[in-house]
Amino acid sequence: MVATKKSEPRGRRRSFDVDEAVETAMRLFHARGYDAVGVAELGAELGIKPPSFYAAFGSKAGLFERALRRYAAGEANIFARALAEGGDVATVIARTLALAAALYPGQNGTAGCLVLDGARNSADPEAQALADAAKREGCAAVRDFIATEAPDRADALADLVVVAMMGMSAAARDGADRDRLERVAAMMDRAFRRELSGA
Amino acid sequence: MVATKKSEPRGRRRSFDVDEAVETAMRLFHARGYDAVGVAELGAELGIKPPSFYAAFGSKAGLFERALRRYAAGEANIFARALAEGGDVATVIARTLALAAALYPGQNGTAGCLVLDGARNSADPEAQALADAAKREGCAAVRDFIATEAPDRADALADLVVVAMMGMSAAARDGADRDRLERVAAMMDRAFRRELSGA
DNA sequence: ATTTTTTTGTAGCGACCACTATAAAAAATC
DNA sequence: GATTTTTTATAGTGGTCGCTACAAAAAAAT
């Protein structure tokens, strides 16, 4: 194994870090929503000009897709984090709601959930479809997990959890702080346990 | 009382009905959000040209304000409707949630609540401020009513109700139908009763 | 050193944004 | 009928939108 070092690509090297650019775009889209962040601002913030932007990401929606994937693959995927720590359905859902209350207040204006609210009211059908697909994925994961204990009522119970998360995301975007969200999360958790135990 | 008939205003008569125009604008803003509806489309749908538009409403945000007031003054103000029928706190909140489940699926694409979601992710600070003021008004009404029975826990209980409504509005905008919303509303109602009765 | 490939910056595309200057049309008052 | 007042339609303002044509610059391969 001498020549494992892959040869450099042929042309001029990129002058910016793609992952870093996706991270910055993710933050901007999260803070103000898809439509409110223009390509000009993205380019300025990322330090790249339009041709480099389109060579790297294809389109504004292409960058949004990368940002959504990065978001769902990181610590913002609160259900995945709650699930990873193990436990029964009630425990994991309680953890999920608590993580939402901790994460959704955000910082630097990045409140709520990018997947749930990033493309809300967007005029671009492509952005709407991307966010919608990410939502379906997350909701299906919650539903399937709940179904392991309550297959009959999984749909209703998942709806309760998802509506709670959407409501908390919206409230956070409207300025609700961590204390208020934690209070709501605790009540939502009690509601979920009650419904799960077969009210 | 002979001359009670007020004299006609002096100039040329308006060729369109202002209230009807506000109604149409309300429907458009409700369906797609503030930013996604342009002045050109509004003018076309209302059958009026830009100068008439600005003479009547001052600005796009001015028309949005009229639409918000009309919305909050009508049957879309579900808490006011629930309150008008009387009853104790638990009864009125249950009615509010049930009305949300009935109203939020909407028709012709007008899903969710215009006040809660009409200016979400808007790039216009004026539209955001108008929607925010309407939200505060509605939330304060819920809080003050709950305070008549539970003054200590009114803030937390109102947060529970408002987060439930925001979540149901978001879910409706994402396509949730009436059956699903009613199931969620019933669970939220049980949660509220449990918290009100002092868990 | 020349060729080839990729990224870069400059400049600008047509389309749409909210909004307005101007003057003609339609009504009441004189 | 002439004057005054308001609304109308035509046309266009500067600005921003997402996106692209073009050629110079920077790298590897020859």
UniProtKB/TrEMBL annotation, chains A, B:
Where does this protein bind DNA?
38-57
- The protein's superkingdom reads Bacteria
Keywords of the record: DNA-binding, Transcription, Transcription regulation
Positions of the HTH tetR-type domain: 15-75
The family database entries (Pfam families) matched by this protein are listed as: TetR_N
| Annotated GO MF terms | DNA binding
Q: What Gene3D superfamilies does this protein's entry cite?
A: Homeodomain-like, Tetracycline Repressor, domain 2
Instruction: Give the protein's recorded name.
Output: TetR family transcriptional regulator
